[in-house]
Prior knowledge:
Layout: H1 3-7, H2 17-97
Amino acid sequence: MNKRMETAPDKTYKSPRRKLVKFFERSRDRWKAKSLEAKKVIKRLGNRVRFLECSKAAYQQQVKALEEQLAEWQAKHEQTARELEELKKKRRVIGTDS
């Protein structure tokens, strides 16, 4: 056994045992209720964190796909703008020959 436990004196209380038992039971029950509530909150918050992490990953994937699509559209737009400029130049050249 632990040496400290062997030397610890028994506590003596002045109140009657029936009152002490009731007090300690109430104290224990409150502690258990508080502990259970804290566990529920921790579990609920853990679930929320997992949900938010999954949702964040999904949004990041969606953002990446949209950024790729935007880059494609910008490239197409630039290509179309270059083709339009070429057509305008050809039209000017053709218009000045007549």
